[in-house]
Amino acid sequence: MRRFVPVLVAVVLAAAGCGGAEPQPRPAGPGLAGQTIEVLAVWSDEEQAAFERVLDVFEQRTGAVVTYVSGGDEVPTLLATRLAGGSPPDIAGVSQPALVRSLARAGSLVPLDAATEAVVDAQFAPVWKELGTVDGELFGLVFKAANKSTVWYDAGQLGPGFTPPRTWAAFTETLRKLSDTGDTPLSIGGADGWVLTDWFENVYLQTAGGEMYDRLADHDIPWTHPSVRTALETLGQVFRPEYLPGGTEGALHTEFVESVVDVFGSDPWASIVYEADFVAGAIAESTSATVGVDALVFPFPRIGSRRSVVSGGDTLVALTDEPGTAALLRFLASSEAASVWAAQGGFVSPNREVGLGEYPDDTTRQIADELVNAENVRFDMSDLMPTALGGIRGDGFWRAMQDYLADPGRVDEILVDLEAEADSAYAAVGP
Amino acid sequence: MTRAPDRGGRRTALLFLAPAAALMLVFLAYPAAYSVVRSLFDARGTEFVGLDNYATAFTDDRTLVALRNSVIWVLVAPTLVTTIGLVLAVLTERIRWAAAFRLVLFMPLAISLVASGIIFRLVYDEDPDSGLANAVAVSVRDAFTAPSPYAGARPRDGGGLVTTADGALVTAAPVGAHDVLALPITGFDPAALPRQASAATVAEPGPGLRGLVWLDVGSAADRTGLVDAGERGMPGVGVEVLAGGRVVATATTGDDGRFTVPDLARGTYTVRLPEENFAAPFRGLTWLGPALVTPVVISAWLWIMSGFAMTLIAAGLAAVPRDALEAARVDGATEWQVFRRVTVPLLSPVLLVVVVTLVINVLKVFDLVFVIAPGSVQEEANVLALQMWQVSFGPGGGDQGLGSALAVLLFLLVLPAMAFNIRRFRREQ
Amino acid sequence: MGAAMAPSPDPPGAVARRPVAARVVARLGGPVVRTALVVVAVFWLLPVLGLLVASLRPEEAGARSGWWTVFTAPAQLTLANYAALLSDRVMLGSLWNTVLITVPSTVLVVVLGALAAYALAWIEFPGRDWVLLGVVALLVVPIQVALIPVAQLLGGIGLYGSIPGVVLFHVAFGLPFAVFLLRNSFAAIPRDLLEAARMDGGRELRIFWRLVLPISLPAVASLAIFQFLWVWNDLLVGLVFADESSAPITVALRSELRQFGSNVDVLASGAFLSMVVPLVVFFAFQRHFVQGVLAGSTR
């Protein structure tokens, strides 16, 4: 029996060695064989599958093992508890720059290394680098961007004679004409306050300009500033009860996905819906309409003269300083990594080097083009504010917008309340 | 006279208690103490702020609403559930298919709270096509009321008509006895006009009050409120002429949308198109609106927890000695008296456990509220546990200090409820 | 008959009233009660039925129309949602994890809770009432409060992210209710029984095992099923304290949810799959709820 053991061991070892044969030749690059890297982010289901393909490319290149954990909406909680428990993930993908800021200031993040920073400098517009910078150091890489200035409409309902309105005046006129014949053309997911904040941000960016936008986001000007009122009143031209299915009450009870289904589903109540490019995902999953065929998009109607885009994004940060972490982030900053996901759809990269040809269809190309080449790009304001103000369901900025939709006559009162909340929120976060 | 166990017995007691006590100390008592201490520090946990967090909690609107709602929950929900559980436990004792019934009542507990929340969200969905509650409400209501001919139409802005609070359309300016009116209506599909509707032309001046009610689906922005070619009148619209609030004459529009009211005395009048012409179809109640959302969520909780109460009480009933009941019955007591005077007191230990557990459970409920209440009414539906969750683990990193303060408040809120119930049942025993 | 009821002498009219009341009560005891119970059962089932139907519909259908429309359009029913879940290896693995977490949690809570409850009910020692009060007070502690401190603790001893860590958390949180429920149930046992047993020279452990537990079987069974349920359906603790390899099914289901979505199809089918085991356990246990040794006279 004794004699068998070494043979057995040898056989097992050999089998293990043989089992791990790589089908592809091992290219050059820092070998991370055997290292495990963990990524925690908000993406799940199809987005998760797409991201895992990106990670696969990295795994094949370096021999590292990358595991992805989906945290859904609980990413902040998970990060907090895992940091407390002493086992944070190596890389985390967060949707709010405010969270990046607070994590960086708490010392939980490792700054991006020089090589990654060089890539960001070369291939990304400055606005994206700024988003990941906290107190002068670069901590975050904006990997996935969202174009939040896209309006979607149902070509089937509106017919081939419909020309998308380019200006705000044309947009309101379109809505009026459609509603005159008894339709309720505009679908708004008012139950999700962030939908309304995205409306506001687009209008504000165009009516007040980029500089004022930045100042409002930093709370340099108060919410009671006349420019805010102007933007809200402009928005009010579109938030008319007769344009919305079920009136304002109906809009306040419609959630984002429902608002998309209300337009593109089998029993439509409206023909136009505004939200970011992730509407495409909702269309694909909850309706039988096809993006690019029945579901078309036009850019947010122009109020000013400049091409303005409000965008969102998911930022990747490093929580450990393992060599594998830095290597993975360097890879994810490259246009190659972005192209892997871009080709699968449902993804827009802020990286300028990603060619428009990488995107799978015209609609996505159009959206990506708008985003990367806009003159006036700003990040979603509600993600820039302290989360207590801009990220809480049913409170703060979200709630103020819902209150405005419910009763535009109360605009002054709403703004005064919002300003008070903003004061305490910004004060709590510190300079 | 009970014989107290000797020192060996006391040691046994400690041995029996030790493992449970150890776990509870580490996982429950320690975090509780940690919370109390943490509530005295700021959001990041570095600066001592004393009672500041508590002050913030009491001055914050959201917390106050949450407090009010939590009190409502505590007062209403556990009693309701215990009563339902008690009644059902007693009633099902006699029937043969008690096991199946219990299974049905128990099923909601086997479903996770999130799934239950989704179920109720769907049941109370405002859209009568997808929400069961409104589907029933609309069917019932529609069985009794007829639809209006021009449902959902509204007056053209600036066309001389305004909508009153009860849905009628009245002329904004006073009308003379011989005026010619043109009243534009919009927001209605021209294809749905009655077949006999003919082209609209402005009424010619002549004796009597004359008017035109037509569907103004103006093609160009500058032609709204004016009669265009292709626009048709609205037949069959009831018209009322009011003098000083009283109806003095009525008319109905003809196929071309025109109406005439002859023989009016000189003076000023108001023309009104009553609400029945344009009433929008009933779409059900706003179950998930600010007024009804808390009762709705409570009803969901009731659905889930009644099975819990019923199961525990049934178990307690099983342990009730039958001879006591028999003795009472032999003495001539009615079923109700047996129930009230014998069964309930004998059940009081179980009832105590049920009520206290429910009270505490009620105050910890947050995922149900979170899932059922849409974003626009989160504030009205807010309860303390949800507020605490959002503050502590909010998307921005959270404020553990304030969250801990809220947790302490939660605890303080429960104590009187618990003490009251414990004392009440002690007395019954 | 009326004269035998000594405590309350009846007013003269009562004799005529009672037969009416008695008749109503007698009638109530029969088919009226049964009908009422059937109605209640149907109402209770409606939401679950809705969920079942929703799990059999594809996402698009669920997004637009109510589930009752399937009765007129049965063609849309499909098992695709279930097939998708069952063929997912991760899902099946997490189902096993859930078993690994739930069974020990339930057993431990029942055993440790019963021992502690017995001590608190029938063994005299100083400060006993305070301990009981403390335990009941701990019922209030919500999970959120314990997340961070326990994470730190478990991280310190290396149990963070493992199944034993999750189990310990669940046991600790289930103990207050267990002790509260069982203690009250034990305390209701007639004193003389225990006296007799002690007099016979029985040791505490033996009395506990042979006498107290069997008598309180309904309460113990109830506790077991509720604890089982609570742990089986738990999401939060599993999400925070289990890592990928030890995640229970609730966490695995979560990653199936799309970021923005009503997801009723996934949720509904997942909820039903998840529900099967607890229901089976309940059905198996439920006869113990009503079969008590004390039902019927013991003198």
Description:
- Chain A is an alpha/beta fold.
- Chain A is built from 21 helices and twelve strands.
- Chain A folds into two domains: 33-146 and 312-374, 3-Layer(aba) Sandwich (D-Maltodextrin-Binding Protein, domain 2); 150-310 and 379-429, Periplasmic binding protein-like II (D-Maltodextrin-Binding Protein, domain 2).
- Chain A has helices at residues 4-19, 45-62, 75-84, 97-105, 114-123, 126-131, 155-158, 168-180, 193-208, 210-217, 226-236, 247-253, 256-264, 279-286, 323-333, 335-342, 362-373, 381-384, 387-390, 396-406, 411-429, and strands at residues 36-41, 65-70, 91-94, 133-134, 137-138, 140-147, 150-154, 186-187, 272-274, 295-299, 308-318, 376-379.
- In chain A, helix 2 (45-62) crosses helix 16 (335-342), helix 5 runs parallel beside helix 15 (323-333) and helix 9 (193-208) packs across helix 11 (226-236).
- The radius of gyration of chain A is 24 Å and the shape is globular.
- In chain B, 52% of the residues lie in helices and 11% in strands.
- The mean pLDDT of chain B is 82.
- Residues 1-18 and 291-299 of chain C have low confidence and may be disordered.
- Helices cover 72% and strands 0% of the residues of chain C.
- Chains in contact: A-B, A-C, B-C.
- At the B-C interface, helix 1, helix 4, helix 5, helix 7 and helix 9 of B face helix 1, helix 4, helix 5, helix 6 and helix 7 of C.
